[in-house]
Amino acid sequence: MPKQNFEEFTGDGAGEELFEKVFKLANYLESCHDGAEHSLGIELLSPPCANVILRDRNGRRHETIMLGSNSYLNLTTHPKVVEASEKALKKYGYGMGAVSLYAGITDLHKELEREIADFHGAEDAILFASGYGTNVGVISALCRPGDVIINDSANHASIFDGCKLSGAEIKIYPHNNIKRLEQILSRLPETQKGRLIIVDGVFSMHGDLAPLDLVTRLAGKYGARVMVDDAHGLGVVGPTGRGTAEFYGVSNLIDLNVGMLSKTPGGIGGYCAGKREVIHYLRLYARTYFFSTALPAPTVAGLIEVFKLLKEDKAGRDRLLRNVEHIKAGLKSLGFNVGDSNSGIVPIIVGDEEKLGMFHRDLMDAGVYANLVSYPAVRRKECRLRLCILSTLTVADIERALKVFEIVGKRNGII
């Protein structure tokens, strides 16, 4: 069957029965066995660490080197984190049973918010039950019709969804194109005073950083607020791991510090840190906070220990950065295109979706797992593997993985 594209199964709503697109996709997947779609939905059969056991959609088990986990520092299984979580489980049970504004939070939730605020040098912080809901909730609460939101084109999907829900005018500039950002800002009417610039700190599909020194300078010049989603920068980027704003020395110029508790912290949820008045407003007007059950206490207890480790810089960040440089240097020497990564994310840009699917499959068969990224997450010409590097990878793990990349890359015509 000829290769079909993602958008061919979304339907246009014009005279098509609601489930027709669903059955078209099902028929296509049953007839196609080599596409990228079959690399999705892998089951993890062991803790998310450097060496894992996976089960693919055909039921086969694979012992692999893990290069696809966002838990960069492996804090999910850190003894102090696990111990704190177990204590909270015995005291509070495994769920909260209510939203945060009613009876859904404990002393642990308030302690975690204080830890996060202190970590960012902010006055207060608010916890959300999911990372996706954090961006949607913050943006849709603060922005309204008549306001304008300016986005980097590579921002996370949750940011764009929050923008749509807000009803504000949405403007987009090409990825990290600061000249275009200034053009947009300079042409805004003076009467449009509600202005918000949103960027990822680390762009999740690229691994590169937003130039926050330049972004904040333009925000000050044109009277805009700045929101940074530093999901992949938290605990990794900056002199003490406090993120992209710390890397550029502009932490005091960020109005909305958004972070995800599901990446380096290894848990689930998200947060926004900022001025006390702003956080209080979000508690009352962010719908994804107001209408979501609070994070489970065992997760919160573990996250408190995570932020203590991050504050003390005792979470293994130095090992992670060494591993990143080792893998980047090795891949470059083999001839792979790894882009401009400056974080725990290292892309391998392939540019051909059919080759990418085969590359990913062959890698897993050879004992290496990485994330497959194709349209609509990136443009088809920029489809890629996304490697998420772990601090607990050994030198032997990395050398073995590089050898596999060399063999499989040559076999699939990528190098």
Search tags:
alpha/beta; Aspartate Aminotransferase, domain 2; 415 residues; Aspartate Aminotransferase, domain 1; single chain; 2 domains; six-stranded mixed sheet; globular; seven-stranded mixed sheet
Describe the structure.
There is one protein chain. The protein is of the alpha/beta class and 415 residues long. It folds into 2 domains: 32-73 and 316-411, Aspartate Aminotransferase, domain 1 (Alpha-Beta Complex), CATH 3.90.1150; 85-311, 3-Layer(aba) Sandwich (Aspartate Aminotransferase, domain 2). Helices cover 40% and strands 16% of the residues. It has 14 helices and 13 strands. The strands form 2 sheets. The chain has a 7-stranded mixed beta sheet, with helices on both faces. A 6-stranded mixed beta sheet has the order 1-2-3-12-13-11. The longest helix is centred in the last third of the chain and has 18 residues, at 317-334.
**CATH fold label of the largest domain:** Aspartate Aminotransferase, domain 2
Structural class: alpha/beta
The shape is globular
Query: How large is the radius of gyration?
Result: 22 Å
Instruction: State the helicity in percent bands.
Output: 25-40%
- For the termini, the CA-CA separation is 28 Å
Order of helices and strands: HEEEHHEHEHEHEHEHEEHHHHEHEEH
Low-confidence stretches: none
What's the total number of strands?
A: 13
CATH architecture title of the largest domain: 3-Layer(aba) Sandwich
For the record, what is the CATH homologous superfamily label of the largest domain?
Type I PLP-dependent aspartate aminotransferase-like (Major domain)
CATH class call of the largest domain: Alpha Beta
- Total discrete domains: 2
The amount of beta strand, in percent, is 15-25%
Mean pLDDT: 94
